[in-house]
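Extended Data, panel c. Modelled sequence:
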Amino acid sequence: QVQLVESGGGLVQAGGSLSLSCAASGRTFSSYAMGWFRQAPGKERELVGFIAWSAGTTYYADSVKGRFTISGDNAKNSVYLQMNSLKPEDSAVYYCAATVRLRGFALTRLMAYEYWGQGTQVTVSS
C-alpha cells in the first residue's frame, strides 16, 4: 500500500510564504505524475498544479500561476509546493496526489490520481 504524507502547512500572513512537502511511503512504486490539490470549506477540491515526470512538465492553475512553484524528486517520489505572495483566498486544506500511470483522465482532474494524502491545513490571514 502506498501512503502519501504531506507536511509544512500552517498559519501565515497575507503576502507571506509557505512550503509544503509530500513524500510517498509504503511499497515501492514509480509515479507518472504527482499533483497538489486544495479544498476550502464549502468548495470543491481543485487543482493547484502537477508535475509529470517523464514529460518534464509542470502545470499550474491560473489562480496560483506566478506565485506557486512545484518541484520534486522522482527517485524519492517526493513533491514540493513553494507558495509565495499568499492571499487569504489560498486558505484551504492542501492535498498531495499521485498516479502511477495515465488513467484516461487529464492530469488536471481528481480522477486522474489514485493515491492521496491526508491533507495539510494552510491558513492565510489578512
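The CA atoms of residues 89 and 124 lie 8 Å apart. This feature is highlighted in the accompanying rendering.
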